[in-house]
Amino acid sequence: MVLAGLCFYMFAAVTVAASVMVVLSRNPVHSVLFLILAFLNSAALFVLLGAEFLAMILVIVYVGAVAVLFMFVVMMLNINFSTTRKRLVQHLPTGGMIGLVLLVELVFVVSAWQKTSTEASFLTSRAPKVADITNTEALGNLLYTQYFYLFQAAGVILLIAMVGAIVLTLRERGGIRRQKISAQIGRTRDESVEIKKISPRSGA
Prior knowledge:
Elements: H1 2-24, H2 28-48, H3 52-77, H4 81-90, H5 92-111, H6 117-124, H7 135-143, H8 148-169, H9 181-185, H10 189-192
Helix pairs in contact: 1-2, 2-3
């Protein structure tokens, strides 16, 4: 128990410190590296809690895919920090107003939280034995029943983030000929075929 407590406080302290450095680091690459460190320590906390499936998913999905994607996007953006700071000051009032609205909404949701009949029946129902149900099965039953809409909303948010990363890295380059399938399909016979009459023994 003492060793588990020490490991918990160590991983938790490193997670909090890495999270703070993600926000405070001026170099975007360093922020991504601190984010990976925070993910790894969060996975270790899940292992201590007995949720090994969540720890594995956190390492495979977030560290192995999302964090690496962030790294490539940050390296491809070619960010101009002077312009970014000017835009930050320019849009600070709007961002602060949106943040204040979100904070008020969160406070309202937390203050008006009431247990539904489904949650009450879930709390009063007899919990299955640990040996009868696995960690993955319990998580799947909870995600795809009680938190199904939130799970789908998380997928939509990740899709929006992926589309945003593609839009940010997409650059238009002039002087490059690209295939236009619609123009090729829309051509008529007169536009694509030219018939020339050649006299005998005159050559092409």
